[in-house]
């Protein structure tokens, strides 16, 4: 079975400060990992994804994440926070692609990011 | 052009009623999903359809019945609505046949409130 744990349900940073949102996963097969962002009253938008290859992946809006197999982690970072980054962030793992799994996403609990002026 | 659309965006109804939520994707994807987001923002898969065939049914009460008339549409019908059904329901789609690497595209959500 696969699972995702996001450490910290709420993270607050000052504008211009480093953003670090933590995600640890559990998977018995090589995982596909995703970070999604949800702005208030909107759907989910993909920030970035790791499938294979380079373990440091860059996404939209200046975010990046590093897949660390030894630590079973996929933490999301951004060097300098902007007010517009305030949102809910979800880490997700894709279940093994066998027919009856259908590629469903298993989500973490979410982390709400607040950015102070 | 909207990739994944849902109607309605808001749905307020009484306990015991029957309601439907519609979802359409214009991305040409082969797989569509329904997710439920509860009041604590936790997201959980409910159903998945691949080429109109049900492939995931995550222990959802049988009051919930998905229907996929074609690859581009996945509707969700809910009978005898209960207070606990109040949530935001998201439709999503992806191209699973490519090997599972493709992202899932999400609709804007339908906020269901049962009174």
Descriptive key words:
heterodimer, A: 117 residues, mainly beta, six-stranded mixed sheet, five-stranded antiparallel sheet, 0% helix, B: 115 residues, seven-stranded mixed sheet, four-stranded antiparallel sheet, 11 strands, globular
Whole-number mean pLDDT of chain A:
91
Rounded mean pLDDT score of chain B: 91
Low-confidence stretches of chain B: none
Helical residue percent band of chain A: under 10%
Instruction: Describe the largest sheet of chain B.
Output: 7 strands, mixed
Shape of chain A: globular
Q: What is the string of helix and strand elements of chain A?
A: EEEEEEEEEEE
Helix content percent band of chain B: under 10%
Secondary-structure element pattern of chain B, one letter each:
EEEEEEEEEEE
Indicate the structural class of chain B: mainly beta
First-last Cα distance of chain A: 41 Å
Largest interface: A-B, 28 and 29 residues
Produce a short descriptive summary:
The complex is a heterodimer of chains A (117) and B (115). In chain A, 0% of the residues lie in helices and 54% in strands.
Task: Characterise this structure.
The complex is a heterodimer of chains A (117) and B (115). Chain A is mainly β. Chain A has strands at 3-7, 10-14, 19-26, 32-38, 44-50, 56-58, 64-68, 73-78, 87-94, 105-107, 111-116. Helix content of chain A is 0%, strand content 54%. Helix content of chain B is 0%, strand content 55%. Chain B has no helices and 11 strands. Chain B is globular. Chain B starts with a strand and ends with a strand. The chains are: A mainly beta (117), B mainly beta (115). Chain A binds chain B through residues 32, 34, 36, 38, 41-46, 49, 51-52, 88, 90, 94, 97, 99-107, 109-110, and chain B through 4, 31, 33, 35, 40-45, 48, 50, 55-56, 58, 90, 92, 94, 96, 99-101, 103-109.
């Amino acid at each position: 079975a696969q699972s995702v744990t996001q450490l910290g349900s709420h993270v607050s940073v000052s504008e211009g400060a480093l953003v670090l949102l933590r995600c640890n996963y559990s998977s018995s097969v090589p995982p596909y990992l995703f970070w999604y962002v949800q702005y208030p009253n909107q759907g989910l938008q993909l920030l970035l994804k790791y499938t294979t290859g380079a373990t440091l992946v860059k996404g939209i809006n200046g975010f990046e994440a590093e897949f660390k197999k030894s630590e079973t982690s996929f933490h999301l970072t951004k060097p300098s926070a902007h007010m517009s980054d305030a949102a809910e962030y979800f880490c997700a793992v894709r279940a093994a692609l066998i027919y009856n799994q259908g590629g469903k996403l298993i989500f973490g609990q979410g982390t709400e990011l607040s950015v102070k002026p | 052009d909207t990739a994944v659309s849902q109607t309605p965006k808001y749905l307020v109804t009484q306990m015991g009623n029957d309601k439907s939520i519609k979802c359409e994707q214009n991305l040409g994807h082969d797989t569509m999903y329904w997710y439920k987001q509860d009041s604590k923002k936790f997201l959980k898969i409910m159903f998945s359809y691949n080429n109109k065939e049900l492939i995931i049914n995550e222990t959802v009460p049988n009051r919930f019945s998905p229907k996929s008339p074609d690859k581009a549409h996945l509707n969700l019908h809910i009978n005898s609505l209960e207070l606990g059904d109040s949530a935001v329901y998201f439709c999503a789609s992806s191209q699973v046949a490519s090997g599972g690497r493709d992202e899932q595209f999400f609709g804007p959500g339908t906020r269901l409130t049962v009174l």
